[in-house]
Amino acid sequence: MENKKEFKSWLEGHNLPHPLVIAGPCSAETEEQVLKIAHELKDSDVTYYRAGIWKPRTRPGNFEGVGAIGLKWLQRVKEETGLLTATEVANRNHVELALEHDIDMLWIGARSTVSPFIVQEIADALEGTDKVVLIKNPVNPDLALWIGAVERIHNAGINKLGVIHRGFSTYDKSKYRNNPEWQIAVDFQTRFPDIPLINDPSHITGKRDMIFDVSQTALDLNFDGLMIETHHTPDKAWSDAAQQVTPDTLKQIFKDLRIRKTSDDEAVYKQELNQLRAQIDVVDQDLIETMGRRMKIADTIGALKKERNVAILQSKRWNEILGRMILLGEEQGLSEEFILKVFKAVHQESIAHQEKVIKAE
Ligand SMILES: O=C(O)C(=O)C[C@]1(C(=O)O)C=C[C@@H](O)C=C1
């Protein structure tokens, strides 16, 4: 699938002076609750009002959503407040009911994105419609699976696309409910710069007091919007109580967030940036030339080893190099994690070069 400018035209059409905000309760609980929260969000930066109607829960026996009746409540929200509406769909029936009730934005949840069968069923049900469809990342950190789901929806003729970064499940305990693994979202953005990228700090953190920091990181990384679960009495919510914020807190969050510009046309800024970028280009070229020289030496070592019938992998020598590089890196302000990543890649490339030499006739 190619990146296309038109993917983001639905978002540009809103002409917002700030990132897109999707907010509302984790679950629609009662008509009163849905309407109360919507009215409290009416005069805010919120464009889309979200509410889960069908809730996929980890274990059975928990509140699993009010079902189709909740769609009528969302229709009332739109009539009374003018907010657009959004809900999660997980099968053909959900899509058909959401379309019948004229829901404006549908999203595919992380547990559905993992299943190409479910995504295809949803894609087939969406064919011929022009809804905005957002695809959450799969629960496992698999960029190809995420892109595959977006492709299935796009192949059904949907061009009003977006993705939601809600973090990834891990077995290890961490301070997050779902690990952000920011690099995966950044990789998605690099592949498809015109597919709006929305961050979901509620599901990443699982805790309301961490939502601001994660939202700020997302905006610093140029995300296009935020989806934040909002409830008038969060602690009494029927699902995900700990991660929901009140409408007032949501408004405060948006007051406090630093919204960075994607770019700046100011001539001085541009000139300074260009000079710095020229320096980076020179350094990058040096890096490549240095790497090339290093691999030529590896080729010669490979030839020597071939002649003497010696194994390529020399763990002792390699560990010595790594130890030295970590110390040198530290002096240059480079983290151990970074040095390990870079030198692991260098080692692999060196081995690949030597293998080529050794295998050559
Ligand atoms: O020193 C060697 O024996 C090499 O083959 C070079 C080199 C390296 O690229 O630095 C590559 C493979 C070995 O595992 C150790 C080091």
UniProtKB/TrEMBL annotation:
<dbReference type="InterPro" id="IPR036263">
    <property type="entry name" value="Chorismate_II_sf"/>
</dbReference>
<feature type="domain" description="Chorismate mutase">
    <location>
        <begin position="267"/>
        <end position="358"/>
    </location>
</feature>
<keyword id="KW-0413">Isomerase</keyword>
<protein>
    <recommendedName>
        <fullName>chorismate mutase</fullName>
        <ecNumber>5.4.99.5</ecNumber>
    </recommendedName>
</protein>
<dbReference type="GO" id="GO:0016740">
    <property type="term" value="F:transferase activity"/>
</dbReference>
<dbReference type="Pfam" id="PF00793">
    <property type="entry name" value="DAHP_synth_1"/>
</dbReference>
<keyword id="KW-0808">Transferase</keyword>
<dbReference type="InterPro" id="IPR002701">
    <property type="entry name" value="CM_II_prokaryot"/>
</dbReference>
<dbReference type="GO" id="GO:0004106">
    <property type="term" value="F:chorismate mutase activity"/>
</dbReference>
<dbReference type="GO" id="GO:0046417">
    <property type="term" value="P:chorismate metabolic process"/>
</dbReference>
<dbReference type="InterPro" id="IPR013785">
    <property type="entry name" value="Aldolase_TIM"/>
</dbReference>
<dbReference type="InterPro" id="IPR036979">
    <property type="entry name" value="CM_dom_sf"/>
</dbReference>
<dbReference type="Pfam" id="PF01817">
    <property type="entry name" value="CM_2"/>
</dbReference>
<dbReference type="InterPro" id="IPR006218">
    <property type="entry name" value="DAHP1/KDSA"/>
</dbReference>
<dbReference type="InterPro" id="IPR052899">
    <property type="entry name" value="Class-I_DAHP_synthase"/>
</dbReference>
